[in-house]
Amino acid sequence: MSVCAGCQLPVEETDARFCPHCGRTIGIGAEVVEGTRLRLGAGQVVLGEVLGEGGMGVVRRGMMRYSADGSGRASTSHPVAVKLLSPALRSEQRARELFVGEAEALARLSHPNIVHFFALTEFEGQLALVMEYVHGRSLSTVIAEHVSRARVGGLPAMAMLPCWHLFSQLLGALAATHALSIVHRDVKPSNVLVRPDGVVKLTDYGIARMPSSAPQSANDMAPGTGAYMSPEQVTGNRLDARSDLYAAAIVLFEMLTGRTPFDNPSRSEIAVRAAQLQETAPPVTQLVPQAPAVLDVLLARALAKDPWHRFGSALELGEALRDALGLPDTAGWTAQRLLAENAAAISRLVPEAGPAPAPGEADRLRTAVMSAYRSST
């Protein structure tokens, strides 16, 4: 016999998830609400308002407070985002594995275009992931705003240069991710955040595939979002970096045209996934006549059904796009290449990755990327 933390009435210890009296999830201790304090070693996080909700849980704003001088007194604070696993899923082993997997992926990554990891903790049996708070909008919102402003005869979505400004940062984040043999598996505009200063942050590694991940069961429906899933992800086959690059190519297609190639309002998720296997994306120039024809060739390769026919890396895709648009090399893109090359060496948790860069070199590269992309979009 246990007591429900919601209505305080006795509840039989059965396999039931919810209290028969008030419907609250059984087994929760103190409720995680605004003002709840999460302990993080010498520091703490005070939870604030809800920023968003999803199938796995809720994201809240938080304020991290810690001692900068080692005294133990909270003397420094800054905002963070706290992702909390849904109480209804806290006893689900697979959900916990995915949640911890996201923390592990973010803990390894150290890149200015990837949301920063601070800590994984637990409060009353509820997992909490503390990460960088990104002030800005999702790329999906940015695209929607461009579409809403489109005029007849004009561009349906984003112009080429602003598109490259944002997309090159996404490619840099993916290059570092793939250098550590991590596959994101959910690259889409809503998981790309754009700060007011033009810096991009890739987030939501919730279904990322780590090098140590167990093979997916053939009976499981592949996780992901149909409109951005590669054919091999739809069918549950083995994935590598080229699957994320397929998704990134669809993001690029949407940035330029205002729509995804295989989705439409009348299609179900299953129908969209089937289209990824059976249909060919329309040429960009069919939807954006002003676009250079070479983009049709580039995206046809990037969206090839067979991963062996696609670009082999994020940097290769970026170089091809830069050539297609006739863009000069930039300090930002040069720094992205160097960061990708050194990604394993400057990772937080990969000591066997080889010699680290010279002291200060990793910080210099990160600063170079941030400085290069801090501009209006």
Structure in words:
The protein is an alpha+beta fold. The chain has helices at 93-108, 139-149, 160-179, 231-234, 241-257, 269-278, 284-287, 294-302, 314-325, 331-341, 343-346, 361-373, and strands at residues 2-3, 10-11, 37-40, 43-53, 57-66, 76-85, 117-123, 126-132, 137-138, 192-194, 200-202. Residues 25-29 have low confidence and may be disordered.
Distance between the termini: 59 Å
Q: Helix and strand string, N-terminal first?
A: EEEEEEHEEEHHEEHHHHHHHHH
* Approximate helicity band: 25-40%
| Low-pLDDT runs | 25-29
Walk across the major sheet and give the strand order. Answer: 3-4-5-6-8-7
What amount of the residues lies in strands? 15-25%
Number of helices: 12
Total strands: the figure is 11
Task: Characterize the biggest β-sheet.
Answer: 6 strands, antiparallel
Shape: globular
Structural class: alpha+beta
